[in-house]
Amino acid sequence: MMDFKLPEELQMLQQNLRRYVDNEMIPYERETLNGIELKPEWREKFQDGMKKLGLWMMDVPEEYGGPGLSLLAKSIVWQELGRTIALPAREDGITGPQVRHILFQLQGEMREKYLMPTLRGEKRACFAQTEPDAGSDPGGMRTTAVLDGDHYVINGVKRFITGAGKSDYMQLMAATDRSKGSRGGISCFIVDMNTPGVTLTAQYETMMGDKPWEIVLDNVRVPVSHRVGEEGKGFGLAQKWLGAGRVKHGSRALGVAERSLEMAVKYSHQRSTFGKPLAERQGIQWQLTDIWMNLDVATLLVRRAASLIDDGQEARVEAYHCKYFADEMAFAAIDRCMQIHGGIALTTDLPIERMWRQQRSYRITEGASEVMRTVIARHVMKAYA
After folding, report:
1. Residues 191 and 264 occupy one common structural domain
2. Against a cut of 0.85, is the pTM above it?
3. How many separate domains does the chain show?
4. Cα dihedral across residues 56, 59, 62, 65: positive or negative
């Protein structure tokens, strides 16, 4: 019989982290950010908190000095941190460097030049895959890497790249054989940001507050030694990280939905209209019930996907499923929370408007909901043919 309970150590982790978020983050969440970034004093405070909770270097395996957390454990962390707007929407850094799977594939000199300084906090990296005409469709990637002797010559444009302005290097996806698309035609490269031909040309101010960059690559020469893995296998490297990333989306959405439910229930007891509290009106009760039921379903989907990946399975469809369902569910939850609160929810006095804007963006980034449904549809059509 399947056990849906978290292991005891993860229950304790969730309880301790929730207590920290409730006491040290939520009460101060309107004053921790300076625009889109954490104020230095708050960053230091939150990092100290994560160290005490045993979550420092959370994304780093044990052999590199990290705690070696399972994806299920990380999902609990993302869920609880998702309950507050005290942190930036993306790349908060309070649990240490966010190191993708790609960097752990580096060997020898490349490992010493890029991975180790990143783990020590001496270098920062960004991930450059999205393009103007190839966001959720990496097979349409137009950035090309053409072999020329012992170098690749790279040309193209990357757009909406988070953290590019502060990065020392990028993990770049480029097409080495456009005819193969994402099935053997994309390779991964480590490219220093100060390489001749690399230019940051634009920074986009988004409704979420973050400011991703556009990067132009004009005849950028990169040594063959800077290719990660085999030629044409780059997308496979990215997919391993993207699977965990979709679980992260789903986990964060759980936190948003639960906070929405907390705020909406509390306000429904406080607010009275036409002689009785909102909490006694069936129309409100049913909305809150829907949030709670969908949150319950999403929690099971997220934990299933995380557990399967921890077990060494690909769980591609399960990861798509939890990302799609949870992101859509959380947006519906915060939208209903906003409606229940009425006009006060439109002000910046409450966290609702920022959570609404952030959660709306997650339905597009790292795989739009429509793409998630398309991939799931392929699975359904094959499974029931």
Report:
1. no
2. yes
3. 3
4. negative
Structure tokens at 292: 């709670």
Phi, psi torsion values for 225, nearest 5 degrees: -65, -15
Spell out the alpha helix ranges (H) of the chain: 8-20, 40-52, 71-81, 108-110, 116-119, 234-270, 282-310, 316-341, 352-362, 369-383
Terminal CA-CA length for the chain: 29
Residue 115 lies in a domain: yes
Nearest to 123 by CA among 190, 223, 204: 190
2 assigned to some structural domain: no
Q: Is 3 within a domain?
A: no
Express as a percent the part of the chain with pLDDT over 70: 98
Domain encompassing residue 84: 8-99
Distance CA 193, CA 29 (A): 33
pLDDT digits 0-9 by tens, 154-213: 999 999 999 999 999 999 999 999 888 878 899 999 999 999 999 999 999 888 888 899
Residues 164, 71: one domain?
no
Enumerate the active-site residues.
Answer: 366
Do residues 242 and 369 share a domain? yes
pLDDT tens by residue, 241-280: 778 899 999 999 999 999 999 999 999 999 999 999 999 9
